[in-house]
Specification:
By secondary structure, the chain is of the alpha+beta class. It has four helices and five strands; from the N terminus they run E-E-E-H-H-E-E-H-H. A five-stranded antiparallel β-sheet has the order 1-2-3-5-4.
């Protein structure tokens, strides 16, 4: 009896923060599994430090981990936080409550 397990490669687009999964040696079929975005990208405007801190606190409470991206443009140069888009959707649409964990938030 042979057991065949599917092997996957996980890739992150450094420009957009999107994370994709594809089968090993299959370069044509990718599936997006998580999209990491900054508050600026999500809102279409600068969020400011107060809102940024509120989102970071909510993420910490929910067990959601962010990432840091270095950016440089005419208005700002430095680190920005990236959050899972699914988490930001819940945060800004009022779907967060204290009984959830990060794993539950990102299930779909």
């Amino acid at each position: 009896m042979s057991l065949v397990t599917q092997k996957y490669i996980y890739e992150r687009n450094p420009d957009t923060g999107e994370i994709f999964k594809r089968e090993f040696n299959n370069y044509n079929k990718k599936k997006e599994i998580m999209n990491m975005v900054s508050l600026y990208d999500y809102l279409g405007r600068a969020a400011g430090p107060e809102l940024g801190q509120e989102v970071a606190n909510a993420a910490r409470s929910a067990g959601v981990k962010g990432e840091i991206r270095e950016v440089s443009n005419p208005k700002y140069r430095g680190p920005v936080m990236l959050w899972p888009k699914a988490f930001l959707d819940l945060y800004f649409k009022g779907g967060l409550n204290e009984g959830h964990t990060g794993k539950q938030l990102l299930k779909g």
